Amino acid sequence: MIVRRLLVLLLLVIGLTPVVASPAWACSCKAGLADAELAFDGVVRSVSRGKGVEHVRFAVEAVVKGSAGAEVTLTTSDTEAACGYRFHEGGRYRVHAVAGTTSLCSGNELLVASPTQSARVERAASDRTQVFWVATGVVVLIVSAALTPVLRQPKTRRLGR
Q1: Do residues 102 and 137 both lie within one domain?
Q2: Angle formed by the axes of helices 2-20 and 115-152, to 10°?
Q3: Contact between residue 75 and residue 54 where contact means Cβ atoms under 8 Å apart
Q4: Parent domain of 15
């Protein structure tokens, strides 16, 4: 009887995990304007990939901190797992950089998305929502299937008589 109660409790806890769990991020850092050598608002003109890095060329619209010409090229890691910031051509960003590099930890902000980026973001958000609800539904079905035999047993069998 105790084993069954523990099993029911375990299944309930496992069943609620997808509902209450928050995402984990590889980069958990605080940075921003105070730590930046250069900060500016600019539009991404091009993104080129190299070995483990991306070279991002910006048309500078306004300098917030430091000094910059009409164009700036910065590097960032090519994956978000390595804290690289994902820039998209045509997007307008407020960028913070140190020594010619920027990252997820730099405090960059998307100010205006490019039209293609906006459509991708909307599709990705929709896809994530669908995956979340399908996974939650599957977990609820599994928990229900596991609990049904336990709850359908006559009381005499459940009490060990």
Answers
A1: no
A2: 170
A3: yes
A4: 2-24+120-158
The 8-class DSSP code of residue 110 comes to E
Task: Give me the percent of the chain exceeding a pLDDT of 70.
Answer: 75
70: domain CATH number is: 2.40.50.120
Whole-Å CA distances, 134 to 10, 146, 159: 21, 18, 36
Residues in CB range of 86: below 8 A, 6 or more apart: 80
Strands 92-97 and 109-112, by their bridges, are antiparallel
- pTM, full prediction: 0.56
Query: CA–CA separation, 18 vs 151, rounded Å?
Result: 24
Q: How far apart are CA 86 and CA 124, in angstroms?
A: 14
> Cα-flanking dihedrals φ and ψ of residue 106, to 5°?
-80, -15
pLDDT in tens, 118-151: 566 666 666 777 777 888 888 888 877 777 777 7
Domain total of the chain: 2
